Amino acid sequence: MKTALLCTALLCAATPASARDLKTEIGAADTRLFSAFNARDLEGMKNGFSPRLEFYHDRSGLTNYADNIRIFGDNFRKPQQVRREAMPDSWRIYPAGPDLAMQIGTHRFCARATPEAAEECSVYGFSTVWSKENGQWKMLRVMSYGH
Exposed, middle or buried: residue 7 (CB in 10 Å: 0-12, 13-18, 19+)? Predict the structure, then answer.
């Protein structure tokens, strides 16, 4: 009985630090990926996506890794400027196995049709499954909604 209580106490004591570590790691992966997005850095985007990516969008449906690289490449060549602002206070991050994590929250996208145009911003919901591949967190599954 004492052993079971000790193990339970140790697990409970370890959970907050592990949860904090996971939130820090996923936050850093999110920042890397969307810094590349905001800089229109296609190579950086490629590094943030798992090659097994599945991206579900409430308007355009399901796309995979190759589709997303093509779409982002096309978008980065357009004059319209889009940037993403993280909203980390909205995030909930959960472990989903030894090398998986779930991130649920909202983020703000702001766009200008031309460099001179006024910026328009909207907030959208997302749910992401991150996969730790070769020591780096990568987007594996994404649901983007509320558009």
Answer: exposed
Calpha distance 97→107 (Å, rounded): 25
Sorted by where each begins, the domain ranges of the chain are: 2-145
Strand-strand pairing, 120-133 and 49-57 = unpaired
Structural contact between residues 69 and 89, judged by C-beta atoms closer than 8 angstroms: no
Tens-place pLDDT, residues 37-63: 999 999 999 999 999 999 999 999 999
Is pTM beyond 0.70? Reply is yes
Which value, to the nearest 10 degrees, does the dihedral of the CA atoms of residues 68, 71, 76, 79 take? -150
CATH class of domain segment(s) 2-145: alpha beta
Residue 119 is classified by DSSP as P
What pLDDT score does 2 carry?
46
DSSP 40: T
Give residue for tokens 């993280």.
86
